[in-house]
Amino acid sequence: MLSDVAVDHREKAYALLKADADKILRLIKVQMDNLTMPQCPLYEEVLDTQMFGLSREIHFAVRLHLISEEEGKTILDNLEKQLNVLHEAAQNS
Question: What is the model's pLDDT at position 1?
């Protein structure tokens, strides 16, 4: 059984990673609303860089056993789904 401290660290790690995913979503939304279209190389570079950074953070947290691989995959999958919705909305407007 995990100690209360370990559970607290796991919950904090998950919350921080989720907050980073939310920041990426907000950043991309602002970029799409104000700066560039999804076909722009700058948009793609920012998105790729941010997603790579988040995936490395998640990988590190998994290696420390702060989150499971499944939890990390869920964070990335949810972010990708939300980004796809934004992308489709931008193309339809």
Answer: 55
